[in-house]
Amino acid sequence: MTSRALEDYTIAWICALAVEAAAARAILDQTHPLPLGFTDPNAYEFGELNGHHIILAYLPSGVYGTTSAAIVVSRLRRTFPRLQFGLMVGIGGGVPSQKNDIRLGDVVVSKPGVKHGGVIQYDYGKTVQGGKLEQTGVLNQPPQALLTRLNQLEANRMTTRKGSLLEVVSEVLERNPDMQRQFSPPEEHTDNLFDPSYYHLDKESDCANCDKERLVKRQPRDEKEPFIHYGLIASGNQVMKDAETRDRLAYEQGILCFEMEAAGIMNELPTLVVRGICDYCDSHKQKQWQGYAALTAAAYAKLLLSVLPVQAATAPRSRHEFTDKDKACLRDLLVADPETERRRIEATKGGLLDDSFRWVLENAEFRKWHSSSKSELLWIKGDPGKGKTMLLIGLINELLLQVQSQPSRSIAYFLCQATDPKLNNATSILRSVIYMLVQQQPHLISRLRQKYDTNPNLFESANAFYSLSGMFENMIHDSTEATIYLLVDALDECETGLSDLLKLIARTKFISAAQVKWIVSSRNRDEIEQELEFGTEHSNAMEPS
């Protein structure tokens, strides 16, 4: 079979455990060989399901938790330029209650609520009066393209056998007889839910010696078909094995399921989380149901993708594919990867807290900047320690999600740092911004190649900024996107060429070919205010409190 290009793959199916990956692989309609140009250190397999090209992404063996998941997804996003969203598919621990009759083998799907996006990190927040943990950040919602299909899938399940998880499971096991021992549904009598106060007797044995009088009495189900539950999934960096803690947290937050990876992914890539229930998050955890639960989760993902049109998942392929000379030009152009710097700063500062930027989305100046049909410039100014950098990173993340879900928008950004010679000058800023725009609109590389082909040292020359600024303005004129978001943090840390950069920013406000929307941040500096003419039409400033 012919290899596909990296650009062909649009959906990441992420697996933390080998049992989850085996179920996912068995669900695929076909597998693909390694794509051309593949150098990513992550472990992947490739295939097709219901017409969608899928990347199966493996998390490192034995390295569990949100951080490991975030690293893998960060590499994913860099390697696959047309990646649209992720599916985190695997096993989890269920939270049964009178309201939610969750059984082993059922499936829980992340679905946004009034106060959450479908997933919370339950071990991250602050402890308030009474010992209650209060969440201090909100993770992003699953992608709209999938949320809009959940009801359609449920309607299919109510009216036809096309929505049957058990039918998909049976088909997979029939095709793969070697999987039957580990992935077939266990006997119903092994689905044991014990009273939360009753602890498992012997860590080295199963529940054969546990007191069956302490089982919670539940009515037998009339059908074998697993139930699907939609709601909140709790993610953390430790295994939940205490029923009383499980019930307390579930009561406080409305949790249906516990797991260990999703919180590291939700703000990296729009992702829907699907968990097959293999235990009840108590001391009676056993592995007997893991295979079947992994397969029911994979079956749900297959059914969901069957109602998602291929065009809804696949971004339009550019008519311009990068040649080897294009790639050489881009390698020489890039001096520092803004995406890597953004993630490094987030990690250094302990992660992005929702409270550090969410307020600005309701700010009058920001809303004017965002909703205007014209080019706009917003200056976020303030003294050191006001949180300007994390505010900018929050806005970058928010705008990245908008660019992914809305056509005709591009985004480029740069985070200045005075102590790093690669990050403290106007030429580096412009090189990185141009690089990001070309990655999103490949046809713009023609503007670079016109000069680069005659002078391969163009980007390192003394006049590089002036050559690049002309190309940059031409690229805006040539843009096929209606709106271009450009964000630069810490302008006051630009040690060389700041005045020229400010003049370029001011000029782009008058380019009518596209809406050019700048956000810049800095300390209060008179020269910045004067050069950018703040207070005039389409140039405004705001200051974090």
TrEMBL record:
InterPro entries: NACHT_NTPase, NLR-like, NPHP3-like_N, Nucleoside_phosphorylase_d, Nucleoside_phosphorylase_sf, P-loop_NTPase. Keywords: Repeat. One of its GO terms (biological process) is nucleoside metabolic process. The keyword Repeat applies. Residues 376-523 form the NACHT domain. SUPFAM superfamilies: Purine and uridine phosphorylases. Gene3D superfamilies: Nucleoside phosphorylase domain (3.40.50.1580), P-loop containing nucleotide triphosphate hydrolases (3.40.50.300). One of its GO terms (molecular function) is catalytic activity. The keyword Endoplasmic reticulum does not apply. This is NACHT domain-containing protein.
